[in-house]
Design goal:
The complex is a heterodimer. Chain A contains five helices and seven strands, in the order ααααβαββββββ. Helices cover 29% and strands 19% of the residues of chain A. Chain B is mainly α. The chains are: A alpha/beta, B mainly alpha.
Chain lengths: 242, 356
C-alpha cells in the first residue's frame, strides 16, 4: 500500500462514517451516544487521510520514484470491506432474524418502588420498563392501563392471534443486542416480520406469578390499537439499558 | 490484499513499529529521504485505484444476487459493520496516542519515568490502565508504540491487558448492568488487575526479548515531529484497523454459529459453565463496555462464571488475537493468548470464590 493508497483508504472510511452520521444510519449499528465519538473519529480520519493524500501528491511531483513505495502493510486494504458490505448487502439492523437467535431479556432486577404512573390517560413507555413493571411492580401499576409501545413484529407460531412485539436493547453496538419482547395478542390481520409498529396495549396479568413459572416467562399484553409506523423505522431503533 | 504470507506478516510488524524516534533529526525536513525503509522500493505497492475494484464489484452485485437478501447474510453484515463502527472511535483515539508516543516520547524520557524493575513497573503500568477510557481496540497500537519507545515489554503488556478492563467507563457500565451487586464490580476490577499484573510478571520473568525484538528495530527518522506523528498515526490506523476488520468478520461469523440461546444446557454444572463463559468471551468478542449487559442477561448462571466472562473478554478474544498477531507478531500471539486466557480464568475463579 503506497502513501496515496493509505490516504485514500482513510478518506474512504471517513466518508463512510460521515454518511452514516449524516443519514442517521449509524443508529442501526451502534448506540446513539456514540454520535460524538464517531463525529470526532470521522474528522480525524478525513484530516489524516487528507494530509496523507496531499503529501503523496507532493511526493509524486518532487520524487516520482519514491511515491510508489509501500508505506503500510497490505492488511490495511481490509478496511475497504465495511464499505463493500454496506454497498452490497445493505444491512438493516437487528430484527426478527436476530431475535430468534438470542434469548430474550429476563427482568431480573427488582426496582421497587417504581415511580407512580400519571393518574390517567395513555402512558408511553420503553419496552424495557414495561417488562420490568410487569414482573416486579408490587403496586401492579400496569393493571388496566393503556401503554404505548414501539417495536417491530416477530411472528411466533405459539401466538396465533398476534406476535412478539420486539425491541432490542443495545448498550454499545448491535453485536451485544438483547431482544425485549412482549407477547402481543389480538393484533388483527397478520403482519410481516420486521414491520415497525406503534401499539397501544394493556398488560394481561399472568394466572400464576412469573417468578413461580418454570421455564421461559412470557409477558403478555392485549393490543387495543395498532399502527404501522409511517416512517418505516424510528430514528432510534434500539433502547439503551442505561 | 493477501495478508497470509509469513513474509508479509513480518513485514507488517516492521511497518508498524520500525519508527522509533530519533531525537537528533527532528528539525531536519527532507522529503527525498523517505520516512520508511522497511519496505523495499522494489515491491509493488498498490495505489488507491485498487479501491475502485471492490466498490464497483459491490455495486454490481447489489440486488442482483438473491443470497445477499437472505436474512442470515444481512444479520452477519449488521454484526460485522456494527463491530467495525463501534471500534473505529476507540481505534482512532488509540492511534492518536500511539502517534504522540512515537513523536514525542524519546527512550530517554521513558528511562527517566518508567521504573526499570518489574516489581515497580508492572503494578504502575496496571494502574495506569485506569486512565484510558475506552475498549480494547485502542490499547493494542498504544502498547506496541510503548515498547518501541523503550518501555519494558512487561509493563507495556500489563497496560495492554489492564486498560480495557479496569477503566472507569467499563466499571461504571458494569455497575449499571448489575445494580446492587457492587461486589461484582470490585471483583471485576481486582480479578482483571491481578490477571494483567500476573501476565506482566510472567513476561518479566521469562526475560526473553527475542519475540518482541522487532519492535525495538532502530530507525533514524527524518522530518518534523508532527510529520512523524501523522505518519505513525496513519500507519498504525491502517495496520491495526486491517486486523480489526479481520477480527470483526470472525466475531460476526461466530455470533451466528454460536447462538446465545443454546447455553442453558450447562447451567447446572459450575465447571462447565466457567469453561463455556471463557469460550464465549473469546468467540463473541463483545466490547468491554458492553459485555456486562450480556452477562447480566444470563441470570441462570452463577456470578463467578459470569465474572470469568467479564475478565476474559477484555484481555483476549478473536479480534484481539488478530490484532496482537498483526502488531506483535504471530509467534508472540501464539504464546501470549493461551497464557493470558489461563491466567484470566484462574484469577476470575479465585476472586469469584473469595468475593462473590
Amino acid at each position: 500500500m503506497n502513501r496515496l493508497g493509505r490516504g485514500a483508504i482513510m478518506m474512504c472510511l471517513g466518508v463512510v462514517l460521515g454518511r452514516l452520521l449524516w443519514t442517521g444510519g449509524f443508529g442501526w449499528f451502534v448506540q446513539q451516544r456514540m454520535r460524538w465519538p464517531l463525529i470526532l473519529a470521522t474528522i480525524m480520519l478525513l484530516f489524516l487521510g487528507g494530509i496523507e493524500c496531499f503529501r503523496a501528491i507532493n511526493e509524486e511531483r518532487d520524487a516520482p520514484d519514491t511515491a510508489t513505495r509501500s508505506v503500510a502493510p497490505s492488511i490495511g486494504w481490509m478496511l475497504i470491506l465495511p464499505l463493500v458490505v454496506l454497498l452490497s448487502v445493505a444491512p438493516t439492523g437487528l430484527g426478527a432474524a436476530a431475535a430468534d437467535r438470542v434469548d430474550a431479556y429476563v427482568p431480573t432486577q427488582q426496582n421497587n418502588p417504581f415511580e407512580p404512573l400519571p393518574e390517567t390517560g395513555l402512558v408511553e413507555m420503553r419496552v424495557f420498563d414495561f417488562l420490568d413493571r410487569a414482573v416486579w411492580d408490587e403496586e401492579r401499576s400496569l393493571e388496566d392501563r393503556v401503554v404505548r409501545l414501539e417495536g417491530l413484529v416477530v411472528n411466533d407460531p405459539a401466538i396465533p392471534d398476534g406476535f412478539r412485539l420486539t425491541r432490542f436493547s443495545v448498550s454499545c453496538c448491535a453485536a451485544d443486542g438483547i431482544p425485549l419482547q412482549v407477547a402481543l395478542r389480538n393484533t388483527g390481520a397478520p403482519l410481516e416480520n420486521d414491520t415497525w409498529v406503534t401499539a397501544d396495549v394493556v398488560w394481561i396479568p399472568p394466572a400464576v406469578p412469573y417468578i413461580e413459572t418454570e421455564g421461559e416467562w412470557i409477558i403478555e399484553a392485549e393490543a387495543r390499537s395498532l399502527e404501522i409506523a409511517p416512517a418505516g423505522v424510528p430514528n432510534d431503533p434500539y433502547e439503551s439499558p442505561y | 490484499m493477501n495478508p497470509t504470507g509469513e513474509g508479509a506478516a513480518a513485514d507488517d510488524r516492521h511497518a508498524l513499529l520500525d519508527h522509533r524516534h530519533d531525537d537528533h533529526s527532528h528539525d531536519d525536513h527532507d522529503h527525498d529521504h523517505g520516512h520508511d525503509h522497511a519496505h523495499g522500493t522494489g515491491r509493488f505497492a498498490l495505489g488507491p485505484w485498487s479501491l475502485l475494484l471492490p466498490i464497483f464489484a459491490a455495486l454490481l452485485l447489489r440486488n442482483r444476487i438473491g443470497w445477499f437478501e437472505g436474512e442470515t447474510v444481512r444479520l452477519w453484515a449488521t454484526l460485522f459493520v456494527s463491530v467495525c463502527v463501534q471500534a473505529v472511535p476507540f481505534l482512532v483515539l488509540g492511534v492518536v496516542i500511539s502517534g504522540l508516543i512515537a513523536a514525542f516520547v524519546s527512550p530517554d524520557l521513558v528511562e527517566r519515568f518508567v521504573p526499570k524493575r518489574p516489581l515497580f513497573a508492572v503494578p504502575s503500568a496496571g494502574l495506569a490502565g485506569m486512565a484510558l477510557p475506552g475498549c480494547e481496540c485502542g490499547s493494542v497500537p498504544i502498547a506496541g508504540r510503548l515498547v518501541s519507545a523503550g518501555t519494558p515489554p512487561a509493563a507495556a503488556l500489563t497496560f495492554l491487558l489492564a486498560a480495557p478492563a479496569i477503566n472507569p467507563v467499563v466499571l461504571i457500565s458494569t455497575a449499571v448492568a448489575f445494580p446492587g451487586e457492587g461486589r461484582l464490580v470490585l471483583a471485576r476490577f481486582l480479578a482483571s488487575l491481578i490477571a494483567a499484573m500476573a501476565v506482566g510478571s510472567w513476561w518479566a520473568r521469562r526475560n526473553d526479548e527475542s519475540l518482541l525484538a522487532q519492535l525495538r528495530h532502530e530507525h533514524e527518522h527524518e522530518g518534523s515531529r508532527w510529520s512523524e506523528f501523522i505518519d505513525v498515526a496513519a500507519r498504525d490506523l491502517v495496520h491495526a484497523g486491517g486486523y480489526l476488520v479481520l477480527g470483526a468478520m470472525a466475531a460476526a461469523t461466530l455470533q451466528l454459529i454460536v447462538p446465545r440461546s443454546a447455553l442453558d444446557v450447562v447451567a447446572d454444572n459450575e465447571l462447565l459453565s466457567i469453561l463455556m463463559f471463557a469460550a464465549l468471551a473469546i468467540l463473541l468478542s463483545i466490547c468491554s463496555e458492553a459485555d456486562a449487559f450480556v452477562a447480566a442477561g444470563l441470570p441462570q448462571f452463577s456470578l463467578t462464571s459470569r465474572l470469568v466472562f467479564l475478565v476474559v473478554g477484555p484481555v483476549i478474544d478473536l479480534k484481539l488475537v488478530a490484532m496482537h498477531a498483526g502488531v506483535f507478531g504471530r509467534r508472540f500471539a501464539a504464546i501470549f493468548a493461551p497464557v493470558t486466557l489461563l491466567v484470566a480464568v484462574a484469577s476470575a475463579v479465585v476472586i469469584g470464590q473469595v468475593l462473590l
